[in-house]
Amino acid sequence: MSGGATAGLRRFGLLVGGAFLVLAAVSRWRGHTLPPAVLAALGVALMVPALVAPGLLGPVERVWMRGATLLGEVNSRILLTVLFYLVIAPVGFVLRRIRDPLDRSLRDADKSNWIRRPSGPVDPMRYERQF
Questions:
Q1: Which of 3, 13, 20, 56 is the most buried (most CB within 10 A)?
Q2: Where are the beta strands (DSSP E) in the chain?
Q3: Hey, how many other C-beta atoms are within 10 angstroms of the C-beta on 63?
Q4: Residue 59 near residue 78 (C-beta atoms within 8 A)
């Protein structure tokens, strides 16, 4: 295993193991008995191999990252749905009640709803970069 991969696995083991140990300490401080023991065991089970033989953490890191990817997909769907229905849709509803953003009204006294452009010479270069 290369030095970069070993360093990455060592960092993973120390970081996640340390997080489990912190969670164990907080859980113990709150008066729990079983969860701190489980969290501390997980923390030690990650930190010891990270210090001694980081290569052993490869499969653990792959499973952890797959779970993180799945959790990220679920969270992004939930957050985007909540954002759409609680922010974007109500703002659009209110703005449509105030005015028509596309100016589609046929009730105007005008003969046509076309918006006239000023006439002038057409520069062909304007078609090269339209955006």
A1: 13
A2: none
A3: 10
A4: no
